[in-house]
Write a structure and sequence with these properties.
Elements lengths: L3 E5 L10 E4 L6 E4 L1 E2 L2 H8 L11 E2 L5 H11 L6
Antiparallel strand pairs: 1-2, 2-3, 4-5
């Protein structure tokens, strides 16, 4: 599988996170983010369980433009 790199947080602390990619075969967004803290995860659990195969991650607001770009790529609006 080859992913299309979209962006890495310009303020990353050296851990290369958060990062956003698009899977060109499925148009899925692939997101690496900070593991949610217990308070955030508890808030998410109010709408249902989180399966063992899933995780809650947090991205900073400064990554909004990268998410928009990833959506455009996934929808084919930005051919690379």
């Amino acid at each position: 599988m080859e992913l299309v790199f979209i962006a890495k947080d310009p303020n990353t602390n050296g851990e290369n996170c958060p990062t956003v990619w698009v899977d060109p075969d499925t148009q899925d967004l692939v997101i690496q983010g900070w593991k949610a803290d217990a308070t955030t995860e508890a808030a998410c659990l109010t709408t249902g369980p989180i399966p063992d195969t899933e995780a809650v991650v947090r991205l900073p607001a400064r990554m909004v433009a990268a998410i928009r770009e990833a959506c455009n790529v996934a929808e084919g609006a930005d051919v690379r």
